[in-house]
Design goal:
alpha/beta, 421 residues, 9-stranded mixed β-sheet, binds pyridoxal-5'-phosphate
């Protein structure tokens, strides 16, 4: 579900013609639909309404301030993984008491910053991390609330790079050793253990892995309660999948129907950390065709966006639907759609059937809202692209395109290297 649609063969985002935005903003640029973001959040929130819950939007999927604010306005919390994401989350307007802090490598300064800001809790991934949190909390006279992230050893049946809940993954603490870790953490003076957390992977299309994980976590929680450790929150991470091509992911309603009977009766607060589900289909990358290149039997559509702007196809072999902004009814061709970067991996689609386009034509790369801009880089000294958001019948630039000056910001040439000619 999203609010991108074709009308008279031209692509609109909500009520705005996308090609009009392209003329003003220039290409490439990311474009987000505010209504799509908010609708996704509301669907999930409504599906879970029968139990106490907190949706913590996963900032890593797209941390643009306008997107984050749109969700904060809806009452969402935030899931962060760094001091930088905490800074962004607070700037965007998420209340600190709705922020959960994950990640295997939190540093002392990040922990101190988060404690001082008064976040809801840390999702702790190791005993040395618990020690450090305990130490920092003691140093500044605070008690830190934590959940331990448990690795439930469940196969999420997703791409190997985005599977996180198998025992060979670096995340969380092995479930069969968890009792000991909880006991040790609970004994620390400046820590209060309040929750259990797990995140088993991303782009999960069925509810089964969640059910399996929750069942394992519930057994653990029951064992913890027997030894006097009371668990108030169950955080099952993010991971809800979306449609990129022909997937058939479970809906918010189906997800809720599968998990609520397991969590509801316990009376514990449910926390979930969706990212992709909320923003994935709410964003497109708009790019202009630079050349049509023919070589041997192949046709290449060379566009002005590159893998530095959207790395998912190169990194995960992921599929993104690609269509012209203006459908002309021209015959389909089969082409590779590639960027200008000096890497063979700089390819958005291989042997893709697409309506024939000419140099200068605009294309939309769909489902680019999550893990798109946030993973972009300046590789090949390419300025990061602009980001825009449509709200109803208006668009807003929510991040300016970088300039060449931005590319060298902070760099300097040591005096000793500067020779007079
Ligand atoms: N929570 C944690 C701990 C994660 O590592 C991630 C993604 O990697 C998420 C939430 C968000 O995942 P998704 O965007 O698939 O919902």
């Amino acid at each position: 579900m999203d609010f991108f649609h074709y009308e008279n063969n031209e692509l609109f985002c909500e009520e705005v013609l996308v090609s009009d935005i392209a003329e003003q903003v220039g290409t490439p640029f990311y474009l987000y639909s505010h209504r799509t973001i908010v609708e996704h959040y509301r669907k999930l929130d409504k599906a879970l309404e029968s139990i106490e819950h907190l949706i913590c939007y996963s900032m890593k999927s797209n941390s643009n301030l306008a997107i984050a604010r749109s969700l904060a306005n809806e009452g969402s919390g935030a899931d962060i993984v760094s001091g930088g994401e905490l800074y962004r989350a607070l700037k965007a307007g998420f209340p600190a008491e709705k922020i959960v802090f994950a990640g295997v490598g939190k540093t002392e300064s990040e922990i101190e910053y988060a404690l001082k800001m008064g976040i809801l809790m840390f999702n702790v991934e190791s005993m040395p991390e618990a020690d450090l949190i305990n130490y920092v909390a003691g140093k500044i006279g605070k008690k830190a609330k934590i959940a331990l992230r448990v690795n439930p050893d469940v196969d999420a049946h997703t791409h190997k790079h985005i599977t996180t809940g198998k025992k060979e993954n670096k995340f969380g603490l092995a479930i069969d050793e968890a009792l000991g870790y909880f006991t040790e953490s609970a004994s620390k003076e400046n820590i209060e253990v309040i929750g259990v957390q797990a995140h088993i992977g991303s782009q999960i299309v069925s509810t089964m892995p969640y059910v399996e994980a929750i069942n394992r976590l519930t057994t653990l929680i029951n064992d913890l309660e027997k030894i006097g450790i009371k668990i108030q929150t169950l955080n099952i991470g993010g991971g809800l999948g979306i449609i990129y091509n022909e997937e058939n992911p479970s809906t918010a309603q189906q997800f809720a129907e599968a998990i609520l009977p397991l969590v509801g009766p316990t009376g514990r607060k449910l926390i979930i950390e969706p990212g992709r589900f909320i923003v994935g289909n709410a964003g497109i990358l708009v790019t202009r065709t630079t050349y049509i290149k023919k070589s041997g039997s192949k046709t290449f559509i060379i566009v002005d966006a590159g893998m530095n702007d959207l790395i998912r196809p190169a990194l995960y072999d992921s599929y993104h639907s690609i269509k012209p902004l203006k459908m002309t009814g021209a015959e389909d061709i089969t082409a590779d759609i590639v960027g200008p970067i000096c890497e063979s991996a700089d390819c958005f689609a291989k042997e893709r059937k697409i309506e024939s386009v000419n140099a200068g034509d605009l294309l939309a790369i769909f489902s680019a809202g999550a893990y798109g801009f946030v993973m972009s880089s300046n590789y090949n000294s390419r300025p990061k692209v602009a980001e825009a958001m449509v709200i109803g019948d208006k668009y807003y630039t929510v991040r300016e395109r970088e300039t060449y000056d931005d590319l060298i910001k902070g760099e300097s040439i040591p005096e000793i290297l500067i020779h007079d000619k």
